[in-house]
């Protein structure tokens, strides 16, 4: 996988440990672009360190409904996604505006003891994500686009259909999952889907549930 100026093809191309940025409701997936507005001092320090190193950050959500009293830090979801800083700008008022491009998911292992103000964990990368394009043919693109269009129509929204038609199945599934207005639990389910086909099916199912909840009958909306 080519991300920015770097290529990630095997496990040795990724670090054994990574600084993690916990952010509820934020979803990063392989090949996806996640814009971030960084202003907390410890996370400014995290991005400073990444920019002088491998430019990699681990995005992860806090674990739902759990807390860790050891250090006053939240417990974290077990699965996150490695992103590379591919865009960076200073605002002049102490903030950074950055964009992360997703590389692959990871499973959190143990936390490392450091003197940094941010948290660093050993990780086990999902190496299969580096060749996820092999899974594209398994996606039911027509069903995904039907659910997407139904959601847009129900909410009186528009889309750039020329761009949608040009997008590969990998880009389409992961971009729609990242842009979806669903909650942290749904976002985590999309992240943890074992493969691209399952992620597309999960996205369709969640969309149908939301449409049924709001409009009473998702089948009518999806026709």
What shape does the CA trace take? globular
Structural class: alpha+beta
Number of H/I helices: 7
Rounded average pLDDT? 90
Number of DSSP E strands: 8
Keywords:
single chain; 223 residues; alpha+beta; 5-stranded mixed barrel; 7 helices; globular
Q: Please, could you describe this protein's structure?
A:
The protein has 223 residues and is an alpha+beta fold. It is built from seven helices and eight strands, in the order E-E-E-E-H-E-E-E-E-H-H-H-H-H-H. A five-stranded mixed beta barrel has the order 3-5-6-7-8. Strands 1-2 form a two-stranded antiparallel ribbon. The mean pLDDT is 90.
Structure at a glance:
With 223 residues, this protein is of the alpha+beta class. The protein contains seven helices and eight strands; from the N terminus they run E-E-E-E-H-E-E-E-E-H-H-H-H-H-H.
Topology:
Layout: E1 2-3, E2 6-7, E3 17-22, E4 33-38, H1 41-51, E5 56-60, E6 79-90, E7 96-112, E8 120-125, H2 141-154, H3 161-166, H4 169-179, H5 184-192, H6 196-215, H7 218-222
Parallel strand pairs: 3-5
Antiparallel strand pairs: 1-2, 3-8, 4-7, 5-6, 6-7, 7-8
Helix pairs in contact: 2-6, 4-6, 5-6
